[in-house]
From TrEMBL:
Lineage top rank: taxon: Bacteria
Stored SUPFAM superfamilies: NTF2-like
Matches recorded under Pfam families: DUF1348
InterPro entries, alphabetized: DUF1348 (IPR009783), NTF2-like_dom_sf (IPR032710)
Gene3D superfamilies reported in the protein's UniProt record: 3.10.450.50
Name of this chain's protein: DUF4440 domain-containing protein
Signal sequence residues: none
Length: 147
């Protein structure tokens, strides 16, 4: 029986927003294995200049990411949707081991299979070094603030 990750396409405004919130909540756990379950076994990714294929590569990528990006907190915003695709805007804050804070922001394009698993994820990401004073207080994972 194939993995299923509702809501499944075709998306409505309500189901697309639920998909975005579920992704935000999962990523804020910083649990690579849990996050990877939302993707097809052969999912294709572009994250910045890194190209990945499959859950094994996704898990390794996320482990390294969250070892480097400390106290990571993400917020996603539904930008557009149609059929089996969703576009989001996002921002997250994190700091490195030396204590330098960053705000990373950008856009993601997602494509899903019929079972609601993401088969393609293309992310464009920019990083901005910020001071402690410039940090934004992002809402906790699962919050409806900013939705």
């Amino acid at each position: 029986m194939p993995d299923t990750r509702p809501p499944c396409p075709p998306f409505t405004a309500e189901t697309a927003l639920r998909k975005v919130r579920a992704a935000e909540d999962a990523w804020n756990t910083r649990d690579p294995e849990r996050v990877a379950l939302a993707y097809t076994e052969d999912s294709e990714w572009r994250n910045r200049d890194v190209f990945l294929t499959g859950r094994t590569e996704i898990v390794a990528f996320l482990r390294a990411k969250w070892e480097r990006e400390l106290d990571y907190r993400l917020r996603k915003e539904l930008w557009a949707f149609t059929g089996d695709r969703i576009a989001v805007r996002f921002e997250y804050e994190w700091h490195d081991a030396a204590g330098q804070w960053y705000r990373s922001y950008g856009n993601e394009n997602w494509e899903f299979d019929a079972n609601g698993l993401m088969r393609r994820r293309f992310a464009s990401v920019n990083d901005l070094a910020i001071t402690e004073r410039e940090r934004r207080v992002l809402p906790p994972a699962g919050s409806s603030a900013g939705a």
